[in-house]
Amino acid sequence: MKRRDFICGLSCLLAGFCLGNFVDLKNKKNKINYNKQKERGIELCSIGIAISSHCNLNCKGCDVYAPLAKKEFVTYEQFVKDMNKLKKIAPDREYNTFFIGGEPLLNPELTKIINKTKELFPNAQKSILTNGILIEKMEENFFKAIKESNVSFGITKYPININFENIERILQKYGIEILYDPVKSDKIYDVNTKQALYNNPDNRNGFVWSQNILDLSGNQNWVEKRFTCPHRGIVTYARGNIYYCYIHAYINAFINYFKVNIPITKDDYIKIADVKSIEEIDDFLSKPKPLCRFCKQCHNTCYGDEPIEWNFSERKITEWT
User: Fold this and answer.
1) How confident is the model at residue 297 (pLDDT cuts 50, 70, 90)?
2) Cystine design at 5: which of 9, 63, 120, 140 (Cβ 3.0–4.6 Å)?
3) CB 288: neighbour CB atoms within 10 A?
4) In the chain, count of helices (H) and strands (E)?
5) DSSP letter string over 95-139?
6) Are 122 and 99 in contact, with CB atoms under 8 Å apart?
7) Mean pLDDT of 198-219
């Protein structure tokens, strides 16, 4: 799910979501204090649920490495077990939830997971971030669950030949909120042949494509990134664990595919089954992560460099480094 807004404008796409509530642990004020790192922390209040690792769209330089990933879903059983644990240790907290992939709609248990999320956190905001390709194929009970659980759709309008107008009609039929994220491109691509069909007739608006860059040498200042990284606070749940950001949750696909040496340590995640209090998770999120030393965090369009054309991945390591 690779696009600039996910990093630089996710708070706009999911208006009102608290993706990681930064607090001054001494003064309880929402402000950055670079000189008092030990007094500043994060309270868990929103979670990105890694519904699937793989995707039905093969994006070049995908932020979550979906073109490199094996087929993997979070199961309903595991999700319920872990979310019940969070509810038990912090019964008064409700977690704004956004379902991410890969492609979330590939998960056959997504409807059950959404219903359970409503049961556990009825007043929380919820959203599905999707490329929209499968929306026309979803069954009626799925849309009813979406509506009853007050889940919105964050749809990335990639430059591909699918019927976005029909998708919009379907969601409007059920009264489901749609938040669009258009990707600017000079071309329209065929999802089947993976070739450009024709020039994009409307390429004036939207977010341009960008590249997420890893530093395989591991020489980045991982303590400083706690304050400067645009991913910070985008807390992600995957494989029974809580990660500081979604890149940490998905980077195993990159490591395994290219056989690179990027160690993931016990300080880079926390297992929900092992925690005894919500303060343990808050404390984990409030500390710098060693894994951050491998991420340059720089999305070129955020810093004024030349944007790249969206395209299909060739699974080359240079797409991410």
Assistant:
1) low
2) 9
3) 17
4) 10, 12
5) -EEEEESS-GGG-TTHHHHHHHHHHH-TTS-EEEEE-STTGGG--
6) no
7) 81
Q: What is the per-residue DSSP string for 136-203?
A: GG--HHHHHHHHHTTEEEEEEE-SBSS-HHHHHHHHHHTT--EEEEEBP-SEEE-TTT-SEEEE-S--
Helix or strand (DSSP H, E) at 48: strand 46-50
Question: Which backbone phi and psi does 191 adopt, to 5 degrees?
Answer: -70, -20
Distance CA(247)–CA(240), nearest Å, equals 16
111-125, 209-223, 299-313 — which is least confidently predicted? Answer: 299-313
Q: Which two tokens stand for residue 90?
A: 């912090």
pLDDT above 70 for 40: no
Listed ranges 39-53, 133-147, 217-231; the one with the highest mean pLDDT:
133-147
Tracing tokens 């919500």 back to the chain, one arrives at 278
| Pairwise CA distance, residues 123 & 136, whole Å | 28
Triad 248, 64, 31: Cα angle to 5°: 50
236, β-bridge pairs: 48, 243
Q: What is the pLDDT of residues 149-171, one digit of tens each?
A: 999 999 999 999 999 999 999 99
